[in-house]
Design brief:
about 325 residues; alpha/beta; globular
Length: about 325
């Protein structure tokens, strides 16, 4: 299993502490840039769809106010941008190559003694071999209107990911292999049994990383492999139900993309959602090219940096118009 912390403080982890998925390599949780605690918000009444939702705790309502303050702070600093091909962030084939190497072929965190520790280390290329089918599950306190909005967003974004990667990614009503959990604070803390049902044999460290998610972590994704295989077979992303619109959308964009195999964050990657600065909220054109490189058949799951670098460099030059395109042969 590889953990990729999402918005709120980024981390990518590799772990072998799986039972049914022994020695699995997959996506670890991904967190965005760590923000210092803002002034404690006073709980406010949050609008509820009382006909279809369960009551929320005062803590969940307070968390909602906190994340609204976080979003306002980020937007006020000119972050969470929605432009996907900004003129103020040009990049070359060489930069695209370096960004891919550091994002797809490095792990930022590892599991040591039952805790995730920041320690950047080389890894191997990992991606899906089977079509990705994304389903979404909502906890009882998520209003039906919000559920409908999130389902529509995920369905449209799955299509964007498929077009960018040239790999089958679709949204399904149930029975997916990539599950998105949208949960409020109390429900997420009690999600251990659900996580064990979704990923039989999931280790306690991974469960705690989700149930004990600190406020500085906005969202997270885990991807898992069967045994020692370098291909993913299962993924679970967790999105906080307390998030306002911009934070929720940015979490969906980063976690679903990272769950495809772009697990690490790299501070020099720009314009990109795969870093910790929260500058961009949406998958950029740069990031779409990273996905296209990841699923190019000239690359093979399990490759290390030395094996992948010359191929990645050639693909990047082709995509940036710096070299004639070559016909890619073969499949996974």
């Amino acid at each position: 299993m590889r953990m990729t912390r999402g918005r709120g403080g980024a981390i990518a982890l590799a772990s072998t502490a799986m039972l049914a998925l022994a020695a699995c390599q997959g996506g670890l949780p991904t967190l965005g840039a760590g923000l210092g605690p803002l002034s404690s918000p006073r709980p406010q009444s949050a609008p509820q769809d009382l006909a279809t939702t369960a009551p929320r705790s005062a803590e969940s309502v307070a968390m909602e106010a906190y994340f609204m303050q976080v979003e306002q702070s980020l937007v006020g600093q000119g972050l969470l941008r929605r432009d996907v091909a900004p003129r103020d962030a040009p990049y070359t084939a060489r930069q695209l190559t370096e960004d891919f190497i550091h994002i797809a072929l490095y792990d930022e965190y590892s599991n040591r003694g039952g805790a995730f520790v920041a320690t950047a280390s080389p890894s191997h290329l990992r991606r899906w071999a089977e079509p990705v089918k994304i389903d979404v599950q909502f906890s009882a306190s998520i209003p039906s209107q919000r559920q409908a909005q999130d389902r529509a967003t995920i369905s449209a974004y799955a299509g964007q990911l498929a077009r960018a990667s040239h790999f089958p990614v679709t949204a399904v009503n149930r029975g997916g292999n990539f599950t998105v959990l949208v949960m409020n604070e109390d429900e997420r803390r009690a999600a251990g049994p659900l996580l064990q049902e979704l990923v039989p044999g999931i280790d306690s460290t991974s469960v705690r990383a989700i149930t004990d998610l600190p406020p500085t972590t906005f969202c997270v994704v885990f991807a898992f492999s069967e045994g020692a295989a370098p291909t993913y077979s299962r993924a679970v992303a967790v999105i906080r139900g307390e998030h306002p619109d911009a934070l929720r959308l940015s979490c969906l964009h980063e976690e679903l993309a990272q769950g495809l195999g772009l697990a690490n964050d790299y501070p020099r990657a720009r314009p990109s959602i795969f870093n910790d600065d929260e500058e961009f909220a949406l998958l950029t054109r740069h990031d779409e090219l990273l996905l296209q490189i990841l699923y190019d058949p000239r690359l093979r799951p399990g490759m290390n940096e030395a094996q992948a670098r010359p191929i990645v460099s050639q693909i990047a030059k082709e995509l940036m118009g710096e070299a004639p395109a070559k016909i890619a042969a073969g499949t996974l």
